[in-house]
Inverse folding.
């Protein structure tokens, strides 16, 4: 994480220096009978690249603004921007609860209060970023809100509180949120000019996804007064102040500072009422609209930022006229370029296929579909497909299909071109007269476009080779096959199917049995530069392990391997290493870190990233918690999440049972599924310091791409692709920049594929 103070983050009024003069004409004389009254409108520029600029006075008649301190904090996901301001009453009339309310005008991006976004070079960015911005209280750290009276400025309203402001001056779309000014002593009334109470402070703060590269944004606001004293328990605050005591303390202080006046506390869906504040009235408002209109909200405050719809039941396939998606029945995968791949059944001219969507595409395109002629297959067509295609870093989709002639094959390609990797019955290298058999799911691929796969036994053939192969289409090489000699004596055998792993340098890791060796009856092996060496052996005579988990060994680009095995003395262990060095990270019955005295029980298969960090799930015993997610190196293992701990972004709920495998990226972010208290499934991603909710059962997702039409569907279940650390050639559910892809089934049994970054 990074923190920056005084980096010249400026909030300037858009005067001549900002290329547009602010509105200064007084509001319409006749305003609706409301507690909220408009003083005027203006545009503000939040800029992380400008040096300090004076903020001009007199923009709103009788008011002046002065810029104060600013700060930016960053974590793995977000940039948190806070700018403090002093507002002064220059008139002889007291002003109460002065608030800068977000508004849409003719100049702003439709459905938003923002006019433009720019990067650090001043280049304009996609207006779709408006959906990613989340207003908040001020920040004192990455994801850490300042809940003090003067800096907890974010204020939320009911839609009915602000809807009557539409049409006043240039307000086309009043949003139900803004930033309220408070005096240093907690008072909310600005006294007449010249008095000690004529000034107040507010903090304009936003949370922006790092991946959007936003360095500046222009926002339209209306300066209003309000007869009610309000404070809001915002989305960041409720993750840090789980019991609401911090919110209650602030509300009590506001009441006292304002002569015992009642304070309206706005809470979000899922929050409990604030009961420890005698002068408070809790109002549980709807999920605050941050984009869209009052009648068609397209984004709300509690919605995860930048959740993009990739595919949905009933939507059209870009390059298959007349075909629409039916059941998106398998978990999707993503690469570091943000491309997403998946399998789906279809309605229309084709019945099923495998699909790819790039970030710039309006809709997914079919790479292959049932009935299409397969390349170099003697006129055979695709019939059925394996449901676990692998999208490699080069943007190529590796997939398997049973052709209409009964043969199984592995292919690699894009919507523009497909090439066979291997077809069942094809001649295999290394042994004259031998052939390949092909499985539907036991393959991986790397950034060079190489593919590694397992050739299983075929009871109908006597010529097939059983073992592991790798290489490019047309240039496959033999890694090991049954009967080959091992480096520790004896020969390899594969009594059950295995999946190898493949890093971007072409190294291959795999698990195999050994026949006829005094040093063991199996092992985890690594092939580098054509030579195979054992990372760990199993056996009853002097070996550390008695068996290995059937999951593929995890692998990174420097040749480190992580795996799950059973120790010869009993108990599971997560281990990592190379052929020269092996270390145990976690073993059954050993103390788990930060787990309230619990010890490890059953362990899940690990994932390893390019930095040598290993993530895994573990059941726990002997303490107050029964399961956890862990991340670390041999020198230091950290707890990421514990069963029974408060669930981030789900107030009042706790984390429950976890999925047995996780996903990991090079930023040290871990993704996992859990069951929340109340039996609701949820998907999380993050670091030990910062977890965020991706999606949960009961979420409502707007599935209509039109910003003017809202079609909400309720999430019933969630699945995602776990297991990979990003460099082992397996399908990834989590990209290096934190983009996660997942599948949801809605309550109406339709399905969708989404990404969140």
């Amino acid at each position: 994480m990074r923190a920056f103070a005084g980096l010249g983050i400026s909030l300037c009024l858009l005067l001549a220096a900002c290329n547009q003069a602010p509105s200064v004409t007084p509001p319409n004389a006749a305003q609706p009978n409301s507690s909220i009254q408009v003083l005027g409108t203006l545009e503000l520029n939040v800029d992380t690249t400008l040096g300090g600029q004076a903020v001009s006075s007199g923009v709103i008649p009788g008011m002046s603004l002065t810029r104060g301190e600013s700060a930016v904090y960053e974590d793995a996901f977000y940039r948190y921007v806070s700018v403090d301001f002093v507002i002064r009453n220059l008139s002889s009339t007291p002003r109460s609860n002065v608030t800068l309310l977000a508004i849409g005008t003719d100049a702003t991006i439709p459905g938003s209060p923002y006019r433009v976004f720019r990067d650090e070079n001043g280049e304009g960015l996609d207006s779709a970023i408006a959906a990613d911005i989340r207003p908040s209280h001020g920040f004192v750290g990455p994801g850490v809100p300042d809940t003090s009276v003067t800096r907890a400025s974010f204020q939320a309203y009911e839609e009915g509180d602000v809807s009557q402001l539409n049409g006043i001056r240039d307000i086309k779309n009043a949003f139900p949120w803004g930033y309220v000014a408070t005096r240093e002593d907690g008072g909310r009334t600005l006294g007449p000019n010249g008095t000690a109470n004529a000034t107040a402070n507010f903090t304009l703060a936003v949370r922006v996804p790092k991946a959007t590269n936003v360095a500046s944004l222009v926002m339209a606001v209306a300066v209003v007064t309000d007869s009610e004293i309000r404070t809001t328990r915002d989305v960041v605050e409720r993750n840090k102040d789980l019991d609401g005591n911090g919110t209650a303390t602030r509300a009590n202080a506001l009441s006292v500072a304002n002569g015992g006046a009642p304070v309206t506390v706005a809470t979000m869906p899922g929050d409990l009422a604030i009961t420890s504040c005698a002068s408070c009235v809790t109002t549980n408002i709807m999920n605050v609209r941050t984009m869209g209109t009052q009648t068609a909200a397209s984004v709300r405050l509690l919605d995860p930022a930048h959740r993009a719809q990739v595919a949905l039941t009933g939507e059209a396939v870009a390059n298959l006229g007349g075909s629409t998606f039916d059941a998106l029945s398998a978990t999707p995968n993503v690469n570091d370029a943000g491309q997403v791949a998946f399998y789906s059944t279809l309605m229309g001219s084709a019945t099923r296929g495998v699909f790819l969507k790039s970030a710039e595409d309006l809709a997914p395109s079919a790479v292959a579909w049932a009935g299409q002629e397969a390349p170099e297959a003697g006129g055979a067509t695709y019939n059925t497909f394996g449901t676990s295609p692998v999208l490699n870093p080069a943007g190529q989709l590796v997939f398997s299909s049973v052709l209409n002639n009964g043969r199984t094959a592995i292919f690699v390609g894009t919507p523009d071109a497909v090439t066979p990797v291997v077809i069942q019955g094809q001649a295999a290298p290394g042994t004259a007269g031998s052939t390949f058999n092909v499985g539907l799911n036991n393959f991986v691929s790397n950034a060079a476009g190489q593919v590694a796969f397992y050739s299983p036994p075929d009871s109908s053939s006597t010529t097939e080779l059983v073992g592991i192969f790798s290489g490019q289409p047309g240039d496959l090489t033999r890694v090991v096959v049954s009967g080959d000699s091992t480096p520790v004596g004896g020969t390899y055998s594969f009594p059950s199917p295995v999946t190898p792993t493949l890093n971007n340098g072409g190294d291959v890791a795999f698990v195999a049995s050994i026949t006829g060796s005094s040093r063991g009856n199996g092992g985890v092996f690594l092939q580098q530069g054509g030579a195979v060496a054992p990372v760990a052996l199993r056996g009853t005579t002097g070996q550390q392990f008695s068996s290995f988990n059937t999951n593929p060994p995890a692998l990174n680009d420097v040749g480190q391997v992580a795996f799950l095995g059973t120790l010869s003395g009993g108990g599971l262990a997560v281990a990592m290493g190379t052929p020269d060095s092996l270390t145990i990270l976690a073993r059954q019955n050993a103390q788990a870190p930060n787990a309230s005295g619990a010890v490890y029980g059953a362990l899940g298969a690990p994932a390893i990233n390019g930095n040598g960090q290993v993530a895994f799930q573990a059941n726990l015993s002997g303490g107050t918690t029964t399961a956890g997610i862990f991340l670390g190196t041999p020198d230091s293992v950290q707890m990421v999440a514990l069963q029974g701990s408060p669930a981030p972004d789900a107030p009042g709920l706790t984390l429950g049972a976890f999925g047995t495998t996780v996903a990991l990226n090079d930023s040290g972010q871990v993704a996992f599924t859990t069951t929340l208290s109340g039996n609701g499934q949820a998907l999380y991603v993050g670091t030990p310091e910062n977890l965020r909710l991706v999606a949960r059962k009961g979420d409502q997702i707007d599935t209509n791409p039109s910003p003017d039409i809202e079609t909400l569907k309720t999430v019933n279940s969630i699945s995602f692709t776990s297991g990979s650390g990003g460099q082992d050639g397996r399908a990834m559910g989590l990209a290096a920049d934190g983009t996660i892809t997942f599948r949801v089934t809605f309550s109406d049994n339709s399905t969708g594929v989404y990404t969140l970054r």
About this structure: Confidence is low (pLDDT under 50) at residues 1-30, 50-58.
